[in-house]
Design goal:
about 280 residues, alpha+beta, Diaminopimelate Epimerase, Chain A, domain 1, 2 domains, 18-stranded mixed β-sheet, about 15% helix, globular
Length: about 280
């Protein structure tokens, strides 16, 4: 079973191309393949391209806990790079169908950068979703209690749910301490991705990320998009935003309607052959 491995600023995925066959992984197989000791090791599996009525290419995004993600900015950049590497696309823009909606992608001539039109960020409680107490609302600067502490957060979705918490200074330690608790908080019926957000200036932010289904993550395109949109919602940043993450930087352009264009790299790592013996469990 052949996989192509890529990373996007340290967020690594395995691409599995079913080549037109009707194929799926079980939850236990996904967990084992992604395991860094018992499998090939990755932050998820990208299955595609497969058939779609909505776009030329369809992508399924699988988390390392066996669940399915609606959208992944890094995953989309990696998938776009894979399509370019295999000659399925050129330098022209093309569309990809995901569970979180259809997006447009474009790979640069030298393959060094990939631009993805990520879609529009919504802050509406019924769309994210966030548990509704009363009327449907935009979830902005609301309190959430974690380990006896009251934090203020913004809820957002760009096809997948996000909880963005502005802080004076982001740290890896706070993300490891609170990430899982926020991901699984009862406010979020579908669980949530988590970003701790530090505003550096009008055009630069810094985030630490806890990814739903994956845990602490070096970089994330959808997290960058959500955090950047929140920074704009706060009035703290302008349209062009550079996002600093432990794995590197992503560039965003966010218009007044919170439509997000994301640009960043995707790096090819290896072709990997999985021996199905590793899928056997006691």
């Amino acid at each position: 079973m052949k996989f192509e491995k890529y990373h996007a600023l340290g967020n690594d995925y395995l691409v599995y191309d079913p080549n037109g066959e009707d194929f799926s992984f079980s939850e236990l197989e996904i967990i084992r393949i992604c395991h860094r000791n018992f499998g090939l090791g990755s932050d998820g599996i990208l299955v595609g391209p497969t058939h779609s009525e909505k776009a030329p290419f369809k992508l399924q995004i699988l988390n390392p806990d066996g669940s399915e993600a609606e959208k992944s900015g890094n995953g989309l950049r990696i998938f776009a790079r894979y399509l370019r590497d295999t000659g399925k696309v050129s330098t022209n823009s093309f569309e990809v169908d995901t569970l979180g909606g259809v997006v447009s992608c474009q790979v640069s001539e030298d393959k060094s950068t990939i631009t993805v039109e990520m879609g529009k960020v919504s802050f509406k409680s019924d769309i994210i979703p966030v548990k509704i107490d009363g009327d449907v609302r935009e979830v902005c600067n609301e309190p959430i209690e974690i380990k006896g502490k009251i934090l203020k957060y913004y809820g957002a979705t760009i096809g997948n749910p996000h909880c963005v918490i502005p802080v004076k200074k982001v740290t890896k330690e706070m993300t490891l301490e609170l990430g899982s608790l926020i991901e699984n908080h009862p406010n979020f019926p579908n669980r949530t991705n988590v970003q701790f957000l530090e505003i550096l200036d009008r055009n630069r932010i810094k985030i630490e990320i806890w990814e739903r289904g994956a845990g602490y993550t070096l970089a994330s395109g959808s997290s960058s998009s959500a955090a950047g949109a929140v920074a704009r919602k706060m009035g703290a940043c302008d349209q062009n935003i550079t996002v600093e993450m432990p794995g590197g930087e992503i560039g965003l352009i966010i218009d007044d309607d919170f439509n997000v264009q994301m640009t960043g790299p995707a790096t090819r790592v290896a072709t990997m052959e999985l021996d199905t013996e590793c899928l056997k469990t006691d």
